[in-house]
Amino acid sequence: MTGAVVDTAAAQEFMREALAKITLDELDRIADELEAKHARFRALLDPAPGRPPAPDALRAVLRSVFATRRRVGELFAQVGAEPLGVRIHELLAGRAPLRERFQAFVDGLDPLPQHLRFDLASECLHYTDPARYWLWTRWVWDPATRTGALPLVTMEEFDLDGGSAGATYLRVGEATAFVHETGQAAGFTAIGRGGFGADVYLACVYGVYVFTTIRMRMTQEFNRVIPPLPELCRRLLGVHRMDS
Predict the structure, then answer these.
(1) Those residues with Cβ within 8 angstroms of residue 20's Cβ, 6 or more apart along the chain or in another chain
(2) pTM for the complete prediction?
(3) Which residue positions in the chain have pLDDT lower than 70?
(4) Rounded to whole angstroms, how far apart are CA atoms 137 and 135?
(5) HEC string of the chain?
(6) Per-residue model confidence (pLDDT) at position 217
(7) Which of 33, 173, 200, 222 has its CA 20 to 30 A from that of 163?
(8) Quick check: is 104 in a domain?
(9) Rounded Cα–Cα distance for residues 113 and 99 (Å)
């Protein structure tokens, strides 16, 4: 498309609302925790040895992903630790173009819910090599409901749906890059010391959206069940009690 991709005014407003619920120092701490998650994934999933990750490594990875944290046993039962490890290794170390590798991973785990498959694929890619890959989880963009953090801060004319999982991952990456670059200039993704500012920012956007939606639709008693924004962001990003 031609023209702006990011709705800068909306993006800045989400940041203002987030900062009413979380401090800049806390945002930096979450970014630092993502650096630790990156180091953990790199150690557990490093494709350099030329072999799939062991079951214990897989378990640690799955426990660090929001969508799979409580479903490790189910995943091992439905897919199997060894086949899952092979799929992840092929995703990370395969020579096919990224779109094809991503699609093959999603198709290869067909018994599982689709959102869980693309969540896991993007987390493995992004946190193993954040300079090359980006995050696509259901809270970033859910093609089934057409909701998530990205459509809240991008222009309606930018279509995030690529028609397939592999193509959509590339579209999400394009939008995320625009959010990152715009945010660096405007200040709302200048979080932390590394490359995870956009992740933290998008988690804040989704958190603000959740708080706003719940406040409008639910009772005050139910509102108190939702964790504070710092904890909600950590849960979405898979770093809440990461070592537990």
Answers:
(1) none
(2) 0.92
(3) 1-3, 216-224, 242-244
(4) 6
(5) CCCCCECHHHHHHHHHHHHCCCCHHHHHHHHHHHHHHHHHHHHHHCCCCCCCCCHHHHHHHHCCCCCCCCCHHHHHHHCCHHHHHHHHHHHHHCCCCHHHHHHHHHHHCCCCCHHHHHHHHHHHHHHHCCCCCCCCCCCCCECCCCECHHHHHECCCCCCCCCCHHHHHHHHHHHHHHHHHHHHHHCCCCCCCCCCHHHHHHHHHHHHHHHHHHHHHCCHHHHCCCCCHHHHHHHHHCCCCCCC
(6) 63
(7) 200
(8) yes
(9) 19
- The whole-number pLDDT of residue 180 equals 95
Q: Is 1 a member of any domain? A: no
**Burial environment of residue 19 by CB neighbours within 10 A (0 to 12, 13 to 18, 19 or more):** middle
Does a structural domain hold residue 15?
yes
Q: For residue 202, give its domain range.
A: 8-237
The C-alpha atoms of residue 149 and residue 11 are separated, in whole angstroms, by: 10
| Main-chain dihedrals φ then ψ at residue 147, nearest 5 degrees | -125, 170
Q: Treating both helix axes as pointing N-terminal to C-terminal, what angle do 8-19 and 165-186 enclose, rounded to 10 degrees?
A: 70
Q: Is residue 244 part of a domain?
A: no
Q: Which residue has 């970014």 as its token pair? A: 31
* The total number of structural domains that make up the chain: 1
